[in-house]
Amino acid sequence: MSRLVYVLNGPNLNLLGKRQPHIYGHETLADVERDCQVLAAELGLQIRFHQSNRECEIIDWIHQARETAGGIVINPAAFTHTSVAILDALNTFDAPVIEVHISNVHKREEFRHRSFVSLRADGVIAGLGTQGYQLALRRLARLIDEKAA
Smallest Cα–Cα separation from 108: which of 132, 134, 73, 78? Predict the structure, then answer.
């Protein structure tokens, strides 16, 4: 099984560290990517790290992952609560998917409590800050190893 993992980030995450730091913290998306790259190397994974404010681009990356990846980590951001299209794309992906949210969406506005992506995700990590990405990579590495055994 492929040890390539796509790490996909949705809208406004390009502003991580600048936008609402009281909710999302002060780390930037570049910091998250750096930390993911370091951990991926330790775990024997390769990652493709992407961010887009456009739903269609995220869907295209999911379609690419179908052919090459052993797993997906996705923080769909606001698309979590609105995108049946991302759910449909994830439903075509046959490897594990871990959904990540930096904030605890269940302590926030009611509309954030519903996730279309969770209907497909093999696991959900919320409210653990940017450390959630690293936990997701660790879980995917284990799932990939178990599937290969």
Answer: 78
Q: What is the pTM of this model?
A: 0.93
pLDDT digits (tens, 9 = 90+) for 20-66: 766 666 789 999 999 999 999 999 999 999 999 999 999 999 999 99
- The answer to whether 24 is a known catalytic residue is yes
Spot the catalytic one: 101, 106, 113, 133: 101
Q: What is the average per-residue pLDDT within 81-97?
A: 96
The one-letter amino acid code at 62 reads I
Fold of the domain spanning 4-148: Rossmann fold (3.40.50)
| Cα–Cα distance list, 48 to 98, 111, 121, 124 (Å) | 15, 30, 19, 20
Rounded to the nearest angstrom, the gap between the alpha carbon of residue 60 and the centroid of all alpha carbons in its chain is 15
Options 6, 24, 81, 113, the catalytic residue:
24
